[in-house]
Amino acid sequence: MPMILAAFASGLLFGLGLIVSQMVDPAKVLAFLDIFGNWDPSLAFVMGGAVVVSSLGYGVAKRRGVPVLAPCLEIPSRRDIDPRLVAGAALFGIGWGLVGFCPGPALTALTFGPWQVPVFVAAMIAGMALFRIAPAKVQVSLRRTAPDLDG
After folding, report:
1. Does residue 32 lie within any of the structural domains?
2. What Å distances lie between residue 111 and 19, 63, 90, 127, CA to CA?
3. Does 85 map to a domain?
4. How far is the CA of 3 from the CAs of 10, 11, 70, 101, in angstroms?
5. Would you say residue 148 has pLDDT above 70?
6. What domain range includes position 95?
7. Which of 105, 143, 147 is nearest to 124 (CA)?
């Protein structure tokens, strides 16, 4: 039960942060991404704050060595940049730039956003489901045919 309450509190705090920072407003996000037009740099402060808080959190977690609500500390160890990572990041960025939403803000905006938000979330869920049900053979083929961006 403590794990569920901690997850709920974290999600609630994250959602409130998205609302306060206006990350749930696609127009605000698109204005931030439009660096050659009517650029709004205010979301850079949101990003900077997130980097600082995350860095502090990782530092505390590494120093403690033992998490509060989990059996062991799991910090990602991979540092390589492979074609699949680059392709996924590119798709994420293209989608974000086209509609002004990424998954977290879209889920938060479900509670009060315009009709386009549920359409975006439904499309996002459908894409995840299609990847899950795609035969493993297709997934392996997609991984092999991803452009080699390492050089």
Report:
1. yes
2. 11, 38, 28, 22
3. yes
4. 10, 12, 8, 28
5. no
6. 2-145
7. 105
Residue length, the chain?
Answer: 151
The confidence score (pLDDT) of residue 141 equals: 61
Q: How far apart are CA 151 and CA 149, in angstroms?
A: 5
CB 70 within 8 A of CB 135: no
**Confidence band, pLDDT 50/70/90 cuts, at residue 144:** low
Q: Which residues contact 101 (CB under 8 A, 6 or more apart)?
A: 26, 29, 95, 109, 117, 120
CA–CA gap between residue 137 and residue 3 (Å, rounded): 36
User: Which amino acid, residue 9?
Assistant: A
- Token pair of 139, please? 């997934």
Structural domains in the chain (count): 1
Residue 151 lies in a domain: no
Distance CA 17, CA 26 (A): 15
pLDDT tier for residue 151 given thresholds of 50, 70 and 90: very low
Q: Does residue 140 lie within any of the structural domains?
A: yes
